[in-house]
Structure formats: C-alpha cells, structure tokens
C-alpha cells in the first residue's frame, strides 16, 4: 500500500485529499504544519509527500530542504502562488513536481501516481551498466553516481534525467523526449523543468557547471551527454 503524507493547513483541502486518496486505497497521514510534517515523515516513512508551500510555521521550501537532508521520497508541491520563481525555488530545493491551486483532483492524482512511479526501482538494465567520464562514474544498475570517490546524492527526478541522457550517450535527446520519459506522457513543453534540473545535475557533476562538457545543451533542441 502506498503511504501518502499530506502537509496542508487548510482543513477543506486536507479533507478532500484524505477522502479521495483513501477511496483509492492510499494510506494517508496529514500534518497541518512543517514541524509536524518533518516529525511524521521521519516516523512514518511515506512513499510520497504532498506539500503545501504556504504553511503557518515555516516556508514549505524549508520542509523540502529538511526532507532532502535524509530522504529521496517524491515530493509533490501545492502552490497557490502564481510566480514561477516560487515553483523553481521548490524544484530547486528538491521537489519533484508541482500543482497550482486551485487544482483538479484528477490532475493531482495523476501527478501523484507519476511521482511514485518515477521513484520505483526499475528492472535490470541493458549491457552497459557503468559509464565512466574523467570526472565521475555512473552505475546504471546500482543507480549510483560516484565523483572523486564519493557517492553523489541525486533526487529521483535528477537520477531519471541522468539515466535517460546516459542511455543515449552521444545522441541528442529532445526536450520533449526528456520531459515525457522523466515526467510523463502528458508533458512536453515544460522546458523550465529541464533548465532547473540540468542546472542541478551540472552543479553536482560538472567540474565547471557554467561551461558544461558532459551535459551539453543543443539550443532549442535538447541535450546531449558526452562522457
Ligand atoms: Ca496554506
């Protein structure tokens, strides 16, 4: 059974989420503020977190940072705020996706399912399971990246993006293909997601993130991984 942690201070939204999630056989915990959310996440180990950014005790982005200190659990953000800065900040902090309020329950549930699916371990991989570059090594089977002798911590979304690029080493992967493979078939135009996540991958893996040599942008087209 999939366990969901709902972090939201508006009782009507909590009630709607709990009813809809339980009807679909999810197990649901609800936290009305950030401190409770962090405590509950540690105690209950949810499979996915639905997180409102506007909480009474702290900014939702702080909750994301707190969670990312120890867990890769998928985080789906609820944002009432219209500015894309807020969303980018949340994605940057390690959220996997966001839904803008007011949201349709069907859309939220679809994104929730996709976030959980992305986090699930996939089956055995193809022939080449280890890809080496001068600066880091990617082990596709173990789902690990090693840089200078240390494991690099990647979120599920970062890993998925890296995996698609590495499996297509040397080939241009279009923006649309990346969005659909990593975020799901209904995506295709959200190129801001790609910019945010490519920046994160470069920051974690490139020697000089502002002059990337492994994660190459093909302007207006897509991205290419060069070992
Ligand atoms: Ca709120």
From TrEMBL:
Question: Which UniProt keywords are given for this protein, alphabetically ordered?
Answer: DNA-binding, Phosphoprotein
Q: Which SUPFAM superfamilies does the UniProt entry name for this protein?
A: CheY-like
Where, per the database record, does this protein carry 4-aspartylphosphate? 52
The cross-references to Gene3D superfamilies, in alphabetical order and at most eight, read: 3.40.50.2300, 6.10.250.690, Winged helix-like DNA-binding domain superfamily/Winged helix DNA-binding domain
Q: Which SMART domains match?
A: REC (SM00448), Trans_reg_C (SM00862)
Ranked from the top, the taxonomy reads: Bacteria, Bacillati, Actinomycetota, Actinomycetes, Kitasatosporales
DNA-binding region(s), residue ranges: 128-227
Concerning Pfam families, the annotation shows: Response_reg, Trans_reg_C
OmpR/PhoB-type domain boundaries = 128-227
Q: What is this protein called?
A: Response regulator
Q: Where is the Response regulatory domain?
A: 3-116
Q: Is the Cell wall biogenesis/degradation keyword given for this protein? A: no
């Amino acid at each position: 059974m999939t366990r969901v942690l709902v972090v939201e201070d508006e009782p009507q939204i909590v009630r709607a989420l709990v009813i809809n999630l339980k009807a679909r056989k999810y197990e649901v915990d609800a936290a009305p503020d950030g401190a409770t959310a962090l405590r509950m996440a540690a105690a209950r180990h949810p499979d996915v977190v639905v997180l409102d950014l506007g909480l009474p005790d702290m900014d939702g982005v702080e909750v994301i940072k707190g969670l990312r200190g120890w867990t890769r659990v998928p985080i789906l953000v609820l944002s009432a705020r219209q500015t894309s800065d807020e969303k980018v900040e949340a994605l940057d902090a390690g959220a996997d996706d966001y839904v803008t309020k007011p949201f349709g329950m069907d859309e939220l549930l679809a994104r929730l399912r996709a976030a959980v699916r992305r986090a699930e371990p996939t089956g055995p991989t193809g022939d080449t399971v280890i890809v080496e570059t001068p600066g880091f090594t990617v082990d596709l089977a173990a789902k690990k990246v090693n840089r200078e002798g240390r494991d690099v911590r990647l979120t599920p979304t970062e890993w998925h993006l890296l995996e698609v690029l590495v499996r297509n080493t040397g080939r241009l992967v279009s923006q649309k293909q990346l969005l659909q493979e990593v975020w799901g078939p209904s995506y295709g135009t959200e190129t801001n997601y790609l910019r945010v996540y490519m920046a994160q991958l470069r920051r974690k893996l490139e020697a000089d993130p502002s002059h990337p040599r492994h994660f190459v942008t093909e302007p207006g087209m897509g991205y290419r991984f060069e070992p």
